[in-house]
Design a protein that fits this description.
145 residues; mainly alpha; N-utilizing Substance Protein B Homolog, Chain A; NusB_fam; RNA-binding; transcription antitermination; NusB-like_sf; Transcription antitermination protein NusB
Amino acid sequence: MSSKAARRRAREFALQGIYQWLLSANSMLLIEEHVSQVSGFDKADRELFISLLRGTLNNVDDLQAEFAPFIHRAVHELSPVERAILLLATHELKHNLDTPYRVIINEAIELAKSYGGTDGHRFVNGVLDKLATQLRVTEVSAGRS
């Protein structure tokens, strides 16, 4: 399996864990244990999964504060899937600087298409495009010139 596919799977499993946490408020370690037992997890990049899940869940309030200005409703009113995707992608934009912002946004859009509501991917795209201009100023500017 390619590393790209393994990374995509890691994001999918991290999304599942974040979603689970949003709905259950179970401990991060319990969720990590549960998700790692799901069929197909062996094909995911385990290190990336752990980094994404822990990094996101340890910083939920800060991450939400980053994207909140770009949504037109309270964060808790978002669907759990959209909220989980925004948390995950915001974490990556802030902390995984070796991953290009366009890759992060595209991966988030794909997650929203697979797991979100009908137009959830458009919403996610709009929020993350705006957020990227703040968190990745130099990279976004270079890409637009």
